[in-house]
Amino acid sequence: MLMRTDPFRELDRLTQQLMGPGTWSKPSAMPMDAYREGDEYVVAFDIPGVTADAIDIDVERNMLTVKAERRPGAKADDVQMELSERPLGVFSRQIVLADTLDTEHIKADYDAGVLTLRIPIAERAKPRKISIGVGSSHKEISG
Questions:
Q1: Which of 24, 33, 46, 97 is packed most tightly, with the most Cβ within 10 A?
Q2: What are the helix (H) ranges across 1-74?
Q3: pTM
């Protein structure tokens, strides 16, 4: 159901993590899981520390794009940062969805730092029975 467009995506993600925060012109990748659950395809993205209004989800044809921005928290003037390991900036993931998915009915849920998208399998992609006519009798074949 999911087709990768860039075989070096994981290497790119690691490089971007080492190079610093992402920007709108060059966002960092975000980790994700993708699996089929019944008649839905589920894609889950880890984006902790991001508010729901800082997440942007777009679908154009079969290209799904998820962008999020983690902004620095407000700190008082007398705060001195000792350690900062949590990445800030823009994160993005772009994946090509198969034609067998119904991109018109995607549901999105954001809970505990995980954005979960549920994409229904299109009716035309589900197995169905086809009857075969032989003379005056019909025989059904399960597909």
A1: 97
A2: 9-19
A3: 0.69
